[in-house]
Design brief:
heterodimer; A: about 110 residues; mainly alpha; AhpD-like; extended; B: alpha/beta; TIM Barrel; 15 helices; 8 strands; globular
Chain lengths: ~110, ~350
């Protein structure tokens, strides 16, 4: 058994096999937040989702949101910039904790 | 122990074969377009014959990845002058047919192309040409005849030019249509703009066609048109009228590409699950007829490429054209028709139900 099978993405809704009312609430929220035009276009939302899919390395989400970006007219430059934003944020989040390191060093008089 | 393994292997193989057979039957049922029409209580009879779409050559200066016609410079199939004259006679005798839509290949590579356009113009028909832009720059790949006269010729004959440009950037365009195609397309569009195409006051219409570079559905026609207009103007000073989004048909060269990548079933599943009944109501086969280079009649260009000829006791050609019989024909559907009914739909005039 492999943990990640691409066909499993299509079975997402089956997570609602038990306590379906919770999954229904999730999907209503998810579709309203991600799948509709609002102050952000569907393309902008797909690019944000693609960046997050890389930030939290999720093969299902990378598959779904690469396709969603293409189907909303995004181009490879925009998609690549989005994942660089994710990568830069990830690096920044690591590095900003260097301030904690400096604080501890100071505390130790180093 | 060895015999036990052999028996198990045979049983396992048989089970696998059975499972594949069942899956095949299930898929055949799922892929059955007519079942889908019954499910949605749709009766797709012809509404009119507004357009005669004529494929006058399979020869092309390009060999695009997605081409459902399998066109290339090596193809030699050409519509004869006799068949063109028969098409002109049909246009003359049937005033209900308002449009002549010329396609190929690159239709300009038929030696009688200019004649066909001029004669149809004399009949006051609206002429549309599926022009690939690059043929103007490349010329005829075998005879080396120059085609630089095309923009002026189109303007003189008020031809509506419909041109493929898979994206407003080089990467997607060249990936699908070949290296250097984007640059040549831009150069050719500049020539069309210079004779008035794309200018709202000129009456000369230049439409562009987007189709996805891979196994995904087109973006919204409206939003892509805005992007194309802004980007082509900003980067190249180019103008055009409308953008049409078209779904790639899972037949011929594009099907081979899908099968090479192992994504054919996934793509069909996407088309089937995206079935949109309001797109189905507007499918182009309800208002046009498609003619092959050798004069055979089909419901659309895709049926033509799959040899699914209109049949009335015998296969119908332009030489047995009968408007009344053809308007009352039964359109032939198959699994590829899901390509026209997915999402916002797809036709030679772009999305159906945006």
């Amino acid at each position: 058994m492999n943990y990640y099978e691409s066909k499993d993405l299509g079975r997402f809704a089956e997570v609602g096999k038990f306590k379906p009312e919770l999954m229904d609430k999730f999907f209503d929220y998810y579709n309203a937040a991600v799948g509709t035009e609002g102050a952000l276009t569907k393309r902008e939302k797909a690019l944000i989702a693609l960046a997050i899919a890389h930030f939290k390395p999720c093969p299902y989400c990378i598959d779904a949101y690469t396709t969603a970006c293409l189907e909303n007219g995004a181009n490879p430059d925009q998609m690549t910039e989005a994942i660089h934003v994710a990568a830069a944020m990830a690096a920044g989040i690591n590095l900003v904790h260097g301030v904690q390191m400096l604080n501890v060093m100071e505390k130790h008089g180093a | 122990m060895l015999w036990k393994n052999t028996v198990l292997k045979i049983l396992f193989n048989e089970r696998e074969i059975m499972e594949k057979a069942v899956l095949h039957l299930v898929n055949n049922n799922r892929n059955n377009f007519e079942n889908k029409l019954i499910e949605y209580k749709l009766n797709l009879q012809p509404l009119s014959i507004d357009t005669l779409q004529v494929n006058i050559t399979l020869k092309c200066n390009q060999a695009c990845l997605h081409c459902h016609v399998d066109s290339s410079p090596k193809r030699t199939e050409q519509m004869s002058k006799k068949t063109i004259d028969k098409c002109l006679e049909i246009l003359q005798n049937n005033p209900q047919i308002k449009n002549l839509d010329l396609t190929g290949g690159a239709p300009e590579l038929n030696p009688h192309f200019d004649y066909f356009v001029r004669e149809a113009k004399k009949l006051n028909k609206h002429i549309l040409v599926r022009h690939n832009l690059t043929v103007t720059i490349d010329g005829d790949p075998t005879t080396k005849e120059s085609k630089m006269y095309l923009p002026k010729f189109y303007a003189e004959n008020s031809v509506e030019v419909i041109s493929s440009l898979p994206y407003y950037q080089e990467y997607f365009t060249d990936k699908q249509r070949g290296k250097g195609v984007f640059r040549k397309s831009i150069e050719s569009m500049k020539m069309l703009n210079s004779v008035g195409y794309g200018n709202k006051n000129s009456g000369l219409i230049l439409d562009l066609v987007y189709n996805p570079v891979g196994a995904f559905l087109p973006a919204s026609q409206e939003s892509l048109e805005k992007d194309y207009k802004a980007e082509l103007m900003k980067n190249y000073g180019l103008k055009f009228n409308n953008l049409y989004t078209i779904t790639n048909m899972p037949i011929h060269r594009f099907r081979e590409q899908l099968e090479r990548h192992g994504t054919y079933d996934e793509y069909m599943e996407k088309l089937i699950t995206s079935f949109n009944p309001s797109s189905a109501l507007g499918v182009m086969c309800r208002s046009l007829l498609s003619v092959s280079y050798d004069g055979r009649i089909f419901d659309c260009d895709f049926n033509q490429m799959l040899n699914m000829q209109v049949f009335d006791g015998k296969p119908i050609t332009v030489f047995d054209f009968d408007y009344e019989k053809l308007i009352n024909r039964n359109i032939i559907f198959s699994s590829h028709c899901f390509g026209c009914t997915a999402g916002a739909g797809s036709s030679c005039g772009g999305a159906i139900s945006e």
